[in-house]
Amino acid sequence: MDTDYFNDTHRQVRDSARRFVATHILPHIDEWEEQGEFPREVFRLAGDAGLLGAGYPEALGGHSEGDVFLKVVISEELMRSTSGGLAASLGSLDIALPPLVRWGRPELRDAIVPPVLRGEKIMALAITEPGGGSDVANLSTRAVRDGDHYVVNGSKTFITSGHRADHYTVAVRTGEAGHGGISLLLVDRDTPGFSRGRHLQKMGWWASDTAELFFEDCRVPADRLIGDENAGFPAIMSNFLSERLMLAVMGYMGAQLALEASQEYVRQREAFGRPLSGFQVTRHKLVEMATQVDIAREYTYRCAALMQAGKNPIRQVAMAKNFAAEVCESVTREAIQLHGGMGYMRETGVERLYRDGRLLAIGGGTTEIMKELIGKQMGL
Q1: How many domains does the chain have?
Q2: Residue where a domain terminates, one of 231, 247, 266
Q3: pLDDT tens digits along 245-277
Q4: N-terminal to C-terminal alpha carbon distance within the chain
Q5: Residue 102 and residue 68 in one domain
Q6: What is the DSSP string of 254-300?
Q7: Model pTM score
Q8: Domain end call among 231, 256, 274
Q9: Same domain, yes or no, for 251 and 359?
């Protein structure tokens, strides 16, 4: 798995992240999955371990700013928790913070970012709406300027870390219809007129706190605007590139873990007097699974290298996300088949990996939206 993409620092961080998962997560993850969330303390422990601050400016309490492969390493190791929901929740800051880091007022940025990177506060991104899905340009939650405040009305859904977040980066409509009328506001959880709805029950990502959000004449100070008014859409789009890369990482890692579990299982399980690994059909199935995983991983690494070099590989990252999502779904399905009846049991990791992997073709822009995006990039 180690290639020229990674240096000694990356390897040290990988070892540290793997120990963190083995010590603080794996002993408890089955219980947390059934509970539908994990303790808030895990955020602070991850912050203490430096896992949350990777890639952010040192002046804000981060380290290794701009190192895309460090984020890849940490995401890979968090996925070894076998829980996409835990990895996604711990990573919710990575989709919520970047707009604030890049375009927020210095005073606002300096007050909010360091506690989040330490794991003392939790940050969530609120874009998706009940009637909108991937159609970000047509979101309808509206913010109307009223003196030194914006009055916000509308709702959001499928918000990761939505219930326990302390701060939310919220996409609102401040202008006309279309992408040109969207802005970003930083909303605190105790803001009057803001509330959280029910805990959403999901097919997978059980350990992820997922919420509905409601804004009813919610008064947000105007100085909580992130960037310029009506300039939120480009900020959202620039954020999507990193989010989709991390979803691709989750895809090939879910498949990798299912492959590893399958290889171990077929060596131990016997049928008709010999191990399952003794059957050619089993070996060939595992070879096909390994081939898909390797291709998805290496292509994702190539996309990360382009980003590291300062490129903007919109088309390639969308392709990586789509391909990794397909690989995850295919490989985890085959893993369940190889496990037989045990593969259908909750106590078997491949069952969770299969459920969790299904989201990857939906989150961060559906496969269909990605194909449209790729087509535009191809000039079609």
Answers
A1: 3
A2: 231
A3: 999 999 999 999 999 999 999 888 766 667 776
A4: 36
A5: yes
A6: HHHHHHHHHHHHHHH-EETTEEGGGSHHHHHHHHHHHHHHHHHHHHH
A7: 0.94
A8: 231
A9: yes
